[in-house]
Amino acid sequence: GALEGRRWPQLDPECHERLMVFVDFAAPGSREGTVVGAAVTDLGSTVSAAPELRVALAGCGTVGGGVLELLTDLPDVRVTGVAARNIDRARSMAPSRVALTTDPARLLDGDPDVVVETMGGLGAAHELVREALGRGLAVVTANKDLLAEHGPALRELARRHGGWLGTAATCGGGAPMLERARRLGRRHDLTVLRGVVNGTSNWILDRMSEGQDLGAAVAAAQTAGYAEADPTADIAGHDAARKICLLAHAAWGLDLPPARVAVSGLEDIDAKVVIEARHRGRHPRLVASARRVADGVHASVDVRFLPPADPLHGVAGVANRLELRDDKDERWLVDGLGAGRWPTAQAVLADVLAARVRRQSSRTNEEWVTELRRTGS
Ligand code: HSE
Fold it and tell me: 173 CB under 6 A from ligand 1?
């Protein structure tokens, strides 16, 4: 997550030894809270005043436009360029000194430290991300399709060239699902991930429970800015399938291709069945699940009619919730708004801030090594 840190030793009044208490202060705009007592981020002994962070933004639509607004408000961040299909719209949103282009590849001319990709799709977005990682830059992407299809190769590219790939916005919107799965996966033997991870379909199922038909509910979801431009992936369950693959990677480090997920979506749900279920106190939810098995992961996405005792029953509107279980049947829930401009833009921002911390800490290390060499110690 996006943490900036200071840490200091404290004296324990009960004993005469010095105790080191680690404190990580959450940065402004961070989705992570301040952490006391657990050394989660090694930032080195000092964090110098922040040098300017140069950020290029590809895509200026629902999410990208939100990101631009948040970035523009941040001190020590300079937006070096914005690539947008609709230049006039981007011009009305971007500060005047920002270079605008319709060609995402041109963004690299502005010498950014971080490239934010919110364009979506595979073609130009894939080329830009690949080129930026190949130059050792930090890339923050909200592109689930890209990660689900090319995640392993992109991660390898980042590793080889010293780049960094921030993906918080690809799953759970404002809910830190990937981060939680990654952290818990390091300390626990996770066995099951199970969640409502598509806000649009959840919102639509709520409308259907109230008697609206699928077509009208989809149109309303698009107007509200939840559904993708092409809502097929939301409705048919493919968006949720991509997300469960990304979660499986975070939890277990395994590359699960979306084609291996058994998927069925909302298209075949009878509106009457939805209303009847509601009368029996059951809520329809598009549930994505992944179970660790001896030879890998079994994953599926389908509509379930959940009883009130189920932790996913009460997830309403565009909220998302992920349940994680381990081999001792310990359980965790991660909650948050899963779709829409601001939750997703905040998740992108958290990764941009994480990239800044990463850059500062590596600078600090370099400076430290230089100092050691200079003094010969
Ligand atoms: N269309 C997606 C959803 C957007 O509804 O969950 C966030 O990934």
Answer: yes
